[in-house]
Write a structure and sequence with these properties.
The protein is globular. The strands form three sheets. It has a six-stranded parallel beta sheet with strand order 10-9-8-11-12-13, with helices on both faces. The longest helix is centred in the first third of the chain and has 17 residues. It is built from 14 helices and 13 strands. Strand 12, helix 10 and strand 13 form a beta-alpha-beta unit. The chain is of the alpha/beta class and about 400 residues long. The protein folds into two domains: about 190 residues, Glycogen Phosphorylase B (Rossmann fold), CATH 3.40.50.2000; about 160 residues, 3-Layer(aba) Sandwich (Rossmann fold), CATH 3.40.50.2000.
Length: about 400
């Protein structure tokens, strides 16, 4: 498993997937190797939950960190016998030919629409769009974690993907740690996100400030490379005493209790496919107000509330406080929906794909056609394999 920060998972969806899938594959008797970036808490840790850790450095610059680490990882794996490789992030696609030259079958997890992220300038956005094409051209299989991403690759390139969603954790209704933050069960609204424009944290805060909500808004998150946007988020709070910024919360137990006891969870992510934070919220049974894009609707369906602007956030939090019974019912429905996202099933999907790669029965590299040519070149209809229940 190549292209992430590795395990133990501390950061985002890729790392969570690697940990949850990798440990299950190891438990089933497979030899799992995860390429990791260095972390001071993990020094001297050769294995983790049955997975072998290979720790390599990375250039600590946003535009080069992922690619530099993956380049070293690919160089290392070429000297070792492996049956198949999972590469996470289409940005790593330029390195795929090295794996192909070594006859290592590879599946690329293409993630979300990275070229839409505001943190990338024009050069970065062009790179990501080109990387998508290279992933199609040089991967034996493509993994999509959301139906919307699968549709995108069908519409843009006319190619099949393997739909392997993330799992939703089941979070207990425990509240013993809330007192540390002077919070009470059901007594606050919650935002958890990296401070990036496409996550709409500024919009969520501005909408809340414009509302007449009485319960405070608790904001968890930070941004290692985005000081300007962080300043905008804090400015949106307009010194409103109802808004509380906690920064990053890395204590998993405390974070779970924040999710499980919020009156609502406000989710602004818009470009990243199925989001682990959203799944964590529904696994906690928390009523959710989400930015209105297909990725979020695919998860929440009719059980969520949706917004597209600050006024929509204000209306939603006011409505949640005005009708706590309906809000609790929505949360209960989402907890049931979370059952459709099961890590055991996801791991089985990865296991099946690995066997297909080894057997050379995966689709194989695809011809790259121009975007928008589907209607003119008669691109074939493709099927999306669903692994999450109910999809």
């Amino acid at each position: 498993m190549i292209g992430t920060r590795g395990v133990p998972a501390r950061y985002g969806g890729f790392e969570t997937a690697v940990e949850e899938v990798g440990r299950r594959l190891a438990e089933r008797g497979h030899r799992v190797v995860v390429y990791c970036r260095s972390h001071p808490d993990d020094e001297g840790l050769p294995t983790y939950l049955g997975m072998r850790r290979v720790v390599l450095p990375a250039l600590r610059k946003r535009s080069l960190e992922t690619l530099s680490h993956t380049a070293l990882s690919v160089g290392h794996v070429l000297g070792h016998r492996v049956d198949a490789a999972f590469v996470f992030n289409a940005a790593n696609a330029p390195l795929l030919p090295a794996l192909r030259t070594a006859r290592i079958p590879v599946a690329t997890h293409v993630d979300g629409l990275e070229w839409k992220r505001a943190k990338w300038g024009p050069t970065g956005q062009r790179y990501y769009r080109r990387a998508e094409e290279l992933a199609v051209r040089w991967s034996d299989a493509l993994i999509a974690d959301a139906p919307g991403i699968a549709r995108y690759y069908t519409d843009e390139f006319g190619v099949p993907t393997r739909y392997l969603a993330y799992g939703a954790p089941v979070i207990a209704q425990e509240s013993s740690r809330l007192g540390e933050l002077d919070l009470t069960p059901g007594g606050y609204h919650l935002v958890v996100a990296r401070f990036e424009p496409e996550n709409h944290v500024e919009l969520a805060v501005a909408g809340y400030v414009a509302s007449a909500a009485e319960r405070p808004l608790v904001v968890v998150g930070s941004a290692p490379y985005a000081d300007d946007y962080t300043n905008r988020v804090h400015a949106a709070a307009a010194d409103d005493p109802r808004v509380r910024f906690l920064g990053g919360v890395w204590d998993a137990e405390l974070l779970d209790q924040l999710y499980a006891n919020a009156a609502t969870y406000v989710h602004g992510h818009s470009v990243g496919g199925t989001n682990p934070s959203l799944l964590r919220a529904i696994g906690a049974g928390t009523a959710t107000i989400a930015y209105d894009v297909s990725f979020n609707r695919d998860v929440l369906r009719e059980h969520g509330q949706y917004f597209g602007d600050a006024a929509g956030v204000a209306r939603a939090v006011e409505a949640a406080e005005a009708d706590p019974t309906a809000t609790a019912s929505a949360g209960a429905s989402l907890r049931e929906r979370a059952r459709d996202f099961d890590w055991d099933d996801v791991a089985t999907g990865y296991e099946s794909l690995a066997r297909d790669l080894v057997a050379r029965s995966a689709p194989g590299p695809q011809r790259v056609r121009r975007r928008g040519d589907a209607g003119r070149d008669g691109a074939r209809s493709v099927a999306v394999t669903a692994v999450a229940h109910g999809e």
